[in-house]
Amino acid sequence: MREVMEQSTDKVLENALANGVDLMSYMTKFQWDKAKYPTALPLSSLADIINKEVSQVETELKSQAAAYNSVKTSLQSLERKQDGNLQTRSLNDIVRKEDLVVSEYLTTLLVVVTSYLQWERTYESLSNFVVPRSSRKLYEDGEAGVFSVTLFKRAVCEFKAKGIFVRWLKVNFSQVFIAWIHLKALRVFVESVLRYGLPVNYQALLLQTDRKRSKKLREELASLFMHLDPTATASKTDVRGQADLHCFKCHS
């Protein structure tokens, strides 16, 4: 996402969502998705499901990235088509001649947008050759709207390819992030049972910090919970490894 958005890297977090919410909100209100990852399955099966899901996305990401970097490849296969919506219906009764800017160097594209605010924030960053503040809303129904945008003709392919790739990244970022958080929750459970035994009686915590304070936090956690560490008499190297484990439970 950061690479594709180029000049709008500060807006990456606005597009990097999980289930439609920001990542920290998803983490702090995390609930296991029993429909997607049935708890009746063995732990090894759940881990396999998650890894397979992410591997599939990774494989598709490589394919999508190749298509984006080579804008001459077919873009039709990357677009979702639904009969009767604004992407496929005739726009003759919506677009007027005066809505279009056509000259030797400039042209107008028509874009179907489902999120007006997101479009307004990002359309100028899809190419360096977009005319600033050139987008206008031409039509809107209950699901989407038709917007015009003016840009240099030389940038048309780049604009189309990047728009499609950004949309794909948003959808699949959410899928992969949710899958990995479930995997981390699974690991917290397994490590806690191995460390504290049965019956299951533990509380998983989430501590938010930054990279500068991460090392200090690990040291403090290691010192604070040393009495719970069965390897407390181990070497300093081993203790440091256990500190990472404690912090993993809290920080992951």
Share of helix, binned:
40-55%
Q: Over the alpha carbons, how many angstroms does the gyration radius reach?
A: 24 Å
Total count of strands: 3
Overall pLDDT confidence: 78
Return the structural class.
mainly alpha
Question: Oligomer, anyone?
Answer: single chain
Order of helices and strands: HHHHEHEEHHH
Low-confidence stretches: 72-83, 235-252
What general form does the structure show?
A: elongated
Overall CATH class of the domain at 2-80 and 96-181: Alpha Beta
> So, CATH architecture of the domain at 2-80 and 96-181?
2-Layer Sandwich
Strand content: 5-15%
User: How can the largest sheet be summarized?
Assistant: 3 strands, antiparallel
Identify the strand order in the major beta sheet: 1-3-2
Q: What fold name stands as the CATH topology of the domain at 2-80 and 96-181? A: Alpha-Beta Plaits
Q: What count of helical segments does DSSP give?
A: 8
Distance between the termini: 22 Å
Question: Can you offer a commentary on this structure?
Answer:
The protein has helices at 2-5, 12-15, 23-28, 43-69, 116-122, 156-196, 211-224, 236-251, and strands at residues 106-113, 136-140, 145-152. It is mainly α. The chain has a domain at 2-80 and 96-181: Alpha-Beta Plaits (2-Layer Sandwich), CATH 3.30.70.100. Strand 2 (136-140) and strand 3 (145-152) form a beta hairpin. Helix 4 packs antiparallel against helix 6 and helix 7 packs across helix 8. Mean pLDDT is 78; it is low at 72-83 and 235-252.
